[in-house]
Specification:
By secondary structure, this protein is an alpha/beta fold. The chain is built from eight helices and 20 strands.
C-alpha cells in the first residue's frame, strides 16, 4: 500500500563502525549472516580513523606494525554485498518485539551487537573562557600533522592520544607537553621516546589557568598543582587531549544495564536483554584489557553465541577453514 514504510530485515545489526564493529561484520559474513552496520560519523573507522590515522599500531594479531588508516582499509576490504553500511546515522531507538529487534522503525534484526567504543565523539573541552580568536588555534583532533609544520604546539593531556600526537607532531614542530600529574597514563615506551627528543619539552604537574594572544602567539599561564606557583609558556597552536565524554543516555533508555558507565555483559558478551550483545571498549567485565585485539576475540565469542541462539538445530562450525 502506498505510503507504508518497508522495513529492511537483517540477521545481525552492529552499532559502531570502528575496527571492532568492522571486524564483527567480517566475522558475521563467515557465518552467512545478513548484516547491517551503523555509524553516526560520515565514514567508517571510528576513533582510530578520526583521532590518530597516522599512528602505528603494534598489537594487532598477524601485523607486526600497521597504521590505523591501513587497518581500517583492510577491514573494509573484507566486506561484501551481504553487509550494508549506513553512515551518518545515529541509532536512537531500539524496541524488542518478540523474536525481532526494531531499530529506528526502519530496520528489523534478529540480533544486535553494540560496538560503540568510548561513545560519541564529544571531546572534553578546556575549562577556560576563551574568545573566538583563541578558539581558532585550539584543536581537539589531529587529522593532518603537516598542518602544524614549523610551529610550536602545546599539547595538554597525559593519555595515549596526547603522547601519540606529541610524537607524531614532533617530526614537524616544536612540542610543549603539559600534564597535571608527574605520571602519565599513556604507554611508557612512547613517553621514553619523547623524553629523548630535543624539540620536546615536558612540563608537569601543571594545568592551564589563562590563555591570551600576545605578539600573535598564544601566551598560556600554567598553575602548578598543589600550590599557587605560576609558569608561562608561548606557542602557535594548542592541542587538547583530555579524552571524550561518554554518552550512555540512549543505552540506558533502551533498558541495557551499565556498570561504571560501561555495558555489563556475561561470558557470552550478552547484555541483560536477550539477543543484544556488546563488545569492545563499550563493555565492562573484571580483568578486561582495552585493546583492539581483545575486542576482536569478544566479537568471535558474541557471534558464536548468536549463531547458537539463531540456529540451534545446526552444528556450529568454529574454525574458518571448515566454513
Amino acid at each position: 500500500m502506498k505510503g507504508v514504510l518497508k522495513i529492511k530485515k537483517f540477521d545481525l545489526a552492529i552499532i559502531g563502525a570502528g575496527p571492532i564493529g568492522l571486524f564483527a561484520a567480517n566475522y558475521a559474513q563467515l557465518h552467512g549472516l545478513k548484516t547491517v552496520i551503523f555509524d553516526s560519523l560520515n565514514e567508517v573507522g571510528g576513533q582510530p580513523q578520526m583521532l590518530y590515522p597516522f599512528k602505528t599500531i603494534n598489537d594487532i594479531p598477524v601485523y607486526q606494525a600497521i597504521t590505523a588508516t591501513n587497518l581500517i582499509t583492510q577491514l573494509k576490504k573484507g566486506l561484501n554485498k551481504d553487509t550494508s553500511i549506513v553512515t551518518n546515522h545515529s541509532v536512537t531507538q531500539i524496541e524488542k518485539r518478540n523474536e525481532e529487534i526494531l531499530i529506528d522503525d526502519k530496520y528489523s534484526t534478529r540480533s544486535l551487537i553494540i560496538a560503540t567504543g568510548n561513545g560519541a565523539f564529544d571531546p572534553k573541552k578546556l575549562p577556560l573562557k576563551l574568545d573566538s580568536e583563541i578558539e581558532k588555534r585550539i584543536h581537539y583532533y589531529v587529522r593532518n600533522p603537516k598542518e602544524f609544520s614549523g610551529k610550536t604546539v602545546a599539547i595538554f593531556g597525559g593519555g595515549d592520544s596526547a603522547l601519540d600526537w606529541a610524537l607524531e607532531l614532533s617530526h614537524f614542530s616544536n612540542i610543549i607537553l603539559v600534564h597535571r600529574r608527574p605520571q602519565f597514563r599513556g604507554l611508557e615506551s612512547t613517553l621514553s621516546k619523547l623524553r629523548q627528543l630535543k624539540n620536546v619539552k615536558i612540563i608537569t604537574p601543571y594545568l592551564p589557568k589563562q590563555i591570551q594572544i600576545e605578539d600573535n602567539q598564544l601566551s598560556v599561564t600554567l598553575k602548578r598543582m598543589g600550590n599557587t606557583y605560576l609558569q608561562k609558556i608561548c606557542g602557535d597552536q594548542i592541542v587538547v587531549a583530555y579524552g571524550f565524554k561518554a554518552n550512555n543516555r540512549l543505552i540506558r533508555k533502551w533498558g541495557i544495564k551499565l556498570t561504571d558507565a560501561r555495558i555489563a555483559v556475561n561470558s557470552s558478551m550478552q547484555t541483560n536483554l536477550p539477543g543484544i550483545y556488546a563488545v569492545g571498549d563499550a563493555i565492562s567485565y573484571h580483568g578486561r584489557v582495552p585493546v583492539i585485539g581483545v575486542g576482536f576475540g569478544e566479537v568471535q565469542i558474541a557471534i558464536n553465541a548468536i549463531m547458537r541462539d539463531l540456529f540451534p538445530e545446526k552444528t556450529l562450525t568454529i574454525h574458518s577453514t571448515s566454513m
